[in-house]
Amino acid sequence: MRIAVLGSNGQLGHDVVRAFAEQRDEVRALTHQDIELSSLESVAACLRATRAEVVVNTAAMHNVETCEQQPSRAQEVNVVGARNLATATRDLGSVLIHVSTDYVFDGAKGRPYVESDEARPLNVYGRTKLEGEEFVQDINPKHFVLRTAALYGNHPCRAKGGQNFVDLMLRLARERGRVRVVDNEFTSPTATTDLARQIASLSRSDAYGLYHATAEGSCSWYEFAREIFRMADVPVTLEVASPNEFPAKVPRPAYSVLENRKLKSQNLNLFRPWQDGLHAYLSEKQLAVARKQA
Predict the structure, then answer these.
(1) How many angstroms separate the CA atoms of 71 and 84, rounded?
(2) Which of 30, 119, 150, 177 lies at 20 to 30 Å from 13 by C-alpha?
(3) Which residues of 30-39 are buried (b: 16+ CB within 10 A; e: fewer)?
(4) What element of type H or E holds 187?
């Protein structure tokens, strides 16, 4: 199949390109240099040239603080961009796979969110991503909207300074020997390789709709850090941070665990436990280091 991947130079996009290439699809990797999401003319012309049967949108403005500071730009990318992609892919007869976020929820439920739960975002990022979801669902019937959470991968995340949570923890352990992490915020850490594999698999399906797409299971950020250090065999003193020790500049959901109910009901769920994804990620990093030293 012919696939176009937007945001291909990002943390997730890089692995999505690789996942489709492994399926021997014809992949066109697109970046902001190739397409301007806020311009329908740019989006339509670019996608028309690719002749893509499936368009995967991993591009977004997803730095939460920057979205709060620049709401108009967040609206352009996350809302207008999604609307333009939905319009262009509908007109071309293409499938649109659109990546969204757990931040569409407020965290008050205290139990894993399913697709039918009411979305109540707390910040500009969450609100704009929710509006983008709605445009995709309303405009192009051949859509997959995938809400995911707490992504980490080998390719640098530009919006977060090039470092994911796993790498940050390992760096702090080396530099300080003591790390403090909160244990009152819960999520489902998801490896980008696992989400990319799920996306590539869904491209072969016509079970369109809204899906939650995260690793199986959940943990607090403290529990995640503890498992990182245990698996990496890193000597460190890990302590529980007080709830207000690292005050957030922007409201965020304290509990944003997603349940992949719809994927499971359609027998489409490929996700493994978050611990397995972490183990694979750390093993790949160790192999990369060994190859460099060889």
Answers:
(1) 18
(2) 119
(3) beeeebbbee
(4) strand 186-187
For 241, other C-beta atoms within 10 Å of its C-beta total 15
Tell me how long the chain is. 294
CATH number of 2-161+188-216+253-272: 3.40.50.720
Whether 211 is catalytic: no
As a whole number of angstroms, the distance between CA 49 and CA 151 comes to 31
Q: Indicate the burial class of 72 (C-beta count within 10 angstroms; 0-12, 13-18, 19 or more).
A: exposed
> 53-92 pLDDT, tens per residue?
999 999 999 889 999 999 999 999 999 999 999 999 999 9
Q: Which residue has the tokens 């943990």?
A: 219
SS3 content of the chain, % helix, strand, coil (to 5): 45, 20, 35
CB 191 within 8 A of CB 155: no
CB 274 within 8 A of CB 188: yes
Of 125, 222, 255, 281, the catalytic one is: 125
- Residue 63, amino acid: N
Delimit the domains of the chain by residue range.
Answer: 2-161+188-216+253-272
